[in-house]
Amino acid sequence: MNFRASPLAIAITAAISATPAIAETTERDSATLLNQVTVTATRTEQQLKDVASSVTVIDSEQIENRHVKDISDLVRYEPGVSVSGDTRTGPGDFTIRGMSGNRVKIITDGVSQANNFQLSLTRYINAARNFVDTDSLKAAEIVKGPASSLYGSDAIGGLVAFQTKDPADILKRDGDLTAGFAKASYSSVDKGFTETVSVANRSGQLESMVLYTRRDSQETETYITNQGDVFGATKRGEANPADNRVNNLLTKVQYQLNDNHRLGFTGEYHDTLSEVKVRDASVDGTTSDDTKERSRIGFEHDWDNAGLAAFDRLHWQLDWQKTTTGMKTLVPAYVADYGSFQRPYPEREQDYNYEEKGFQLHAQFNKELGAHGLTYGIHATDDKVSNKSVETNLEDGSIKNKDYIPEVSRNVYGVFIQDEFQVTDKLTVTPGVRYDKYSYKPSQRVDGMNFEDSSDSAVTGRLGSVYKLDNQYSVFAQFSQGFRAPDLIDMFYTLDNVTYLIQGNPDLKPEKSNSFEAGLRGGTLYGDFEITAFYNRYKDFIDTVAIQDPKYPWGVTRAENLQKAWIKGVELKGQVFLDELADQLDGFTLNGSVAYAKGEGEVDNKKNPLNSVAPLTAVMGLAFEAPAGNWGSELLWTVVKGKDESDLSSSTSFEAPGYGVVDLTAHYKPTDEITLRAGLFNLTDKKYWAWESVSNVAPGSNNMDRFTKPGRHFNLSAKYEF
């Protein structure tokens, strides 16, 4: 592949090459790429320039200015990170550097979120993981690469950490007061209206807040929007008609007992209702009625300045959480043509429910011992996972209970320790290790089958270092390990359908990984940058294999620890402060990021590309903030390379073409209390497919237009603060 120097690369080179005479002054009043603060990468508060891994921080200002309304929008301008989804369930799973689904851990305020639960043979069962409302967030952090040594199972591919707003984020000032905001927005892409209101109060040492968001929308448009009521798979490109509703409630109460002790209570409730007319199905008249709910109640305690031999600071929290997904599908009567025979199906209703509920306990201790900063703690999860699937024949009233896995009691325990060791003024070394043990205890509730208990454990380590070359530049490197406990569906999902058999495998071993990452960072008067190279090696990957059995003409499938895989790549991000280059460019900043990755999986000594790896992606932006601080704008250009046969695991995958998309956003404050925002997206009305939406779509499909992203559309919002 041939690369040419882009304007972004040239500008970053200029920033790197700042002359020593003027490069000694590198501090700016405004936020820069490398002085953003992360609390996730090392479980301690650090600036990005001081951590030994690649981390992205997205704050509430970026969320609002870029009109983020869901998790897909959240990572729209983050190369190497994407969100998959479909037209029925909406945004679903994060993909980070080619790792997706339950291989990426999601936490909200330190609480692990529910796993995805999806059956490959049916579209009627898909418990996605989108249970957060972006209007409630003050920040989102993305750790790229394995984070199991600090966060345990499911972080083998990375970590997404959401932080919800606190009362202080609404109050903003000291003293006793009441403050809040009201915000309304409209999105043309789904005819969506959103209203958010929040009120916070401080009375003495007591702070409290409530935040409520309501969203009402229709289907998200595809590029094709004029096919009316056309039904069927042939050439259909318009999205399925849908009506969506979201409610999100966040409440917090925090009390400062004294200088050293602070107590906190959090209550969260999130529900989503989606009604869809599934016109792209093989059966005319199919409709769905889906619900998603998440409830959380949490208590936390911070103890600062403890001065004990064991710790200087303690944070612990106990949370109860319940997550439920319900998918109800009405399927009219039809006759299925299987070629050699036909089979009639009666009108029926599929009613599927999946639930996770239980407690999570987390405690973290910090201790300063000279040049050593110790962080250690425990994490425990005790919950139950269940599903209930009922199929009702609407013609004769008969009912079939089709539970796909038994009810499972799940216990996960982890202990970890990390040492941030300041070896010299220039060198910091951070070793860490974690031990995790998990156990699954299934009931015997699926067709009388017997299921054995399953348990296993894993030890994961991490060694990171940052070396400051001088006041401007530093290098960093990290070796980290990851692991992931097997999904319940792979262990216990068993279905005997006469012609085929799906077997659960309770003997599955955890997936494991070794990851290497190294990079260079620099910050000068003219800008800052970070370039990272990574190599991730995975083993005991869980994949589905086919087994020949004469009793089942369509075969037997079973999950096995078979696959090995590796992913390597390079990422670059940076910004150039154009106002430092010319007085006429006061307020202008040039931003950019690029991500390239390549991966292969190996089964039975046969190597194939990993379809989950995103194509080469670059995002370039020109931003302006008025010196008076009352208005600003940003022009963003996203460029994605197309996928070809060499990137795909088989010829049965769609070769998504490359594309370039231009977006423009602006914000204006006519008064201190009012902020108006507008955004115009896909400015050139480009027709394109996002790879994460079509990676599993066959190229011969007649309705590929149904998977296109929206054409030109706009967002508007107004916010009043008091």
UniProtKB/TrEMBL annotation:
Gene for this protein? hemR
CDD domains the record matches: ligand_gated_channel
Q: Which Pfam families match?
A: Plug, TonB_dep_Rec_b-barrel
Q: Which GO terms describe its cellular component?
A: cell outer membrane
The family line of this record is: Belongs to the TonB-dependent receptor family. Hemoglobin/haptoglobin binding protein subfamily.
Task: Look up and give the organism this protein is from.
Answer: Parendozoicomonas haliclonae
Location relative to the cell: Cell outer membrane
One example of a Gene Ontology biological process annotation: siderophore transmembrane transport
- Protein name from the UniProt record: Hemin receptor
Q: Which SUPFAM superfamilies does the entry mention?
A: Porins
Sorted alphabetically, which keywords does the UniProt record give? Cell outer membrane, Membrane, Receptor, Signal, TonB box, Transmembrane, Transmembrane beta strand, Transport
Q: Which domain of life is it from?
A: Bacteria
The secretion signal range is: 1-23
Instruction: Say if the entry is tagged with keyword Membrane.
Output: yes
